From TrEMBL, chain A:
SMART domains: AAA. The lineage of its organism: Bacteria, Pseudomonadati, Pseudomonadota, Alphaproteobacteria, Hyphomicrobiales. Keywords: ATP-binding, Cell membrane, Membrane, Nucleotide-binding, Repeat, Sugar transport, Translocase, Transport. Belongs to the ABC transporter superfamily. Pfam families: ABC_tran. The keyword Zinc-finger does not apply. GO terms for molecular function: ATP binding. Residues 4-246, 253-498 form the ABC transporter domain. This is Sugar ABC transporter ATP-binding protein. It comes from Hoeflea poritis. It comes from the Bacteria. Gene3D superfamilies: P-loop containing nucleotide triphosphate hydrolases.
From TrEMBL, chain B:
It is a multi-pass membrane protein. The chain crosses the membrane at residues 7-26, 38-58, 65-84, 90-113, 120-140, 168-186, 215-234, 246-264, 271-289, 295-315. InterPro entries: ABC_transp_permease. This is ABC transporter permease. Its main location: membrane. It comes from the Bacteria. The keyword Oxidoreductase does not apply. It is found in: Cell membrane. PANTHER family: ABC TRANSPORTER PERMEASE PROTEIN YPHD-RELATED, ABC TRANSPORTER PERMEASE PROTEIN YPHD-RELATED-RELATED. It holds the Pfam family BPD_transp_2.
Amino acid sequence: MNALSIRNLSKSFAGSPALSDVALELRGGEIHALMGENGAGKSTLIRILAGVETADALVLEKDGRALPLSNAQNAHDAGFRFIHQELNIVPQLSAAENISLGLPYPRRLGLAVDWKELNSRAGMALSRLGVDHIDPAMQAARFDTGDQMLIKIASCLVDAEGRTADLYVFDEPTAALTGEESEKLFAVISGLKDSGAAVLYVSHRMNEVMRLCDRVTVLRDGRNVLSAPISETSKEEIITAMTGRSVAEIYPPRSSDVGEAVVYAASGVSTDEVSRIEFKLRAGEILGVAGLANAGQSGVLRIVMGLAEPGKGRIEFGSEPAPKTPSEAWARGIAYIPRERRREGLMLQMPVCDNAVLPHLDRLRRLLFMANRRGERAMATRTADDVRLKAAGLSQPVYQLSGGNQQKVLFARALGRQPAILVLDEPTRGVDIGAKYDIYALVRELSEAGCPVIMTSTDLSETLGMCDRVLIMRDGAQQAIIDAAGLTPADLLSRIYAS
Amino acid sequence: MLRILRIYGTLIGFALIVVLFSVLLPGTFFTSGNLINISQQISMLAVVAFTMTIVMVMNDFDLSVGSMASLAGVTAAVLFSLGYPVYVGVGAALLVGLLGGVFNGVLVSLVGILPFVATLGTLTMFSGLAFLVSGGRTIFGRDIPSEFSGFARGGIPLDFIGLDGQKLPFLSLVALLVLAVVWFVLEQTTYGRRLYAIGGNKEAARLAGVRVKSLRLSAFALTGLGAAIAGLMYSSRVASANPTQGSGLMLDAIAAVFLGMTMSEEGEPRVLYTLVGVLILGVLDNGLTQLSVDSYIREIMVGAIVVSAVAFSSITKQSR
């Protein structure tokens, strides 16, 4: 394929335009970045390309010939392949089966599955990714998120061996990957490009895009605002195009000192997941928890949330014993934003309002057990406003919102009452840069009002930009707590490796 | 247009059924007497379906309601035959329902067995218990006190709205009362809101501070209690009790909830929609019986209607 041209693409939902007259020129042998804030229309565009959503108007031409696109089969026949940020792995099946899912399995005598062939086919796809640590015969559930992503990507490659794909769409593929895994992925994507396929690459990570991509298209409010070769543009120009404002300080600086009062203290705490956890959380302090992938960062947060039972050690939080369940933790004012918002955070089919007020139903109720709908709506209106949520209304089901706005619904939930401690597990994972600004500003505002925050982040500059101190984890054990002031991401990385 | 069809399709279907029977059965179907009769015929199914809605809101099932209804019926009848007063028999039957429901709840929420498997097991257990308690026989005649069987024959005179000589049966009234309570619990209390949250996403609900285990347990207890109420209603209506009389209730109740779910925007169960599902099943049964349609044919038709309503709803949902 030489060129895939998308023009006059328009789509509205319930009368409000999500995409208006968008154009995208993709070329074989080129990596094209698609960027934009949450709600800018990226996801809608991808869903249309995948044939999941039907456009109101669209001219789609491959090498000058018009292509039909009204269902997923069309998209597949056109040679479009999609790697989404949310994994669609079947955990019960083996890695090899996940890779061949949707394809006819190789068979012996036309009947029994030829496992050897299936596994070797998967092994070849994985080795093309430069991945040799995944045993194709092993159950997918036993791999971590990063490896599952690689399995998913390999499944697109094995497809390509039968019929050549013309377009690979990557929707934030590195969101859950470690640096090393990302590097492997970049090598693979470059390989796809060299083989002559077009790549559409959606990511919020500016550095990745600048390094990997040849061309960038930026959407804002469903319209094209920038389309240029990467070499002729700059980070600043892209961010300005996305946000409509110039690049100021990404991380809002602290304007007041951390308080003296210790709100929460853990000493020598060990659970099933982590050991030797020892920290003090002061009023208004932001404590980061950093480490390599799966070094136990989330496990530290789970202690605070009452999700892991401390077998050893002591926790001090107020005058009462530490919360033992999430229910007790919320009741004591500990607000939690879990790592995987779709699986652990949201009731996707339910309205924004119900999602936002869930932990606070008891505080709003009337006459002991009556739900107070008016009070709930009032709270959701206030908190949705506080987090600058963009939604069609409080009754809109959450699954219709973009990733960034879904995350904001979780922040709205956390703000139902003034939190005593804010517990954030990867608060900006899969969130676009505009929503990130809003979230950083919000977290800073809360911390300056005296609320302590404990957060994990795989983004080192985010950790350093937001946190006062960083707790470093390695293999489930605490290694050190260091002051974040004056550190560079490289310093932090070397501490993570060295300690 | 499609959206209207999707939301109101089931209701339109119900209206068509009513019109069809009114035309085919002039002077006998759409009369106050027959409608009152239908309300009594469906009252037991209604109670089971309404309380079944409580667990189905959480995406759970209770397959044991039918045999629980039988067990409750024979428990009361056996106590009556031993000479205990009505309130003891009724109280014991309700207690059995509640405890059976708690047992289901413990298996599902504390032990963590899938509701389908857990309640399939208790279905068999309750059924066996009903045979054990009753000795496998039907308890009837003088063993059933007349105060108990008289309840089902009684009602509130409707003279004051111009229906001279007709009564609103107490059984229909019980169903209405259960409807009101379940509606209140699901729609107006924080308890109900949490059940819907569990149905939306169990893990997310737990992490947002919902006590998932105890709520699930209590919801199963309520469903068990509802089954026991229905079992008592049935025994009262036929003035007897046997260990299999409730067995048809479970499938119809689940079918009614599914029919109702086709009417809600995101496919969640709502008790008022369950009422529509119950009415559809009840009206079909009544009308087809009056038309002397063979009962086997009737079953085929009822099954086909449930399947096509749910299929229609899921097809229109996919194409939106």
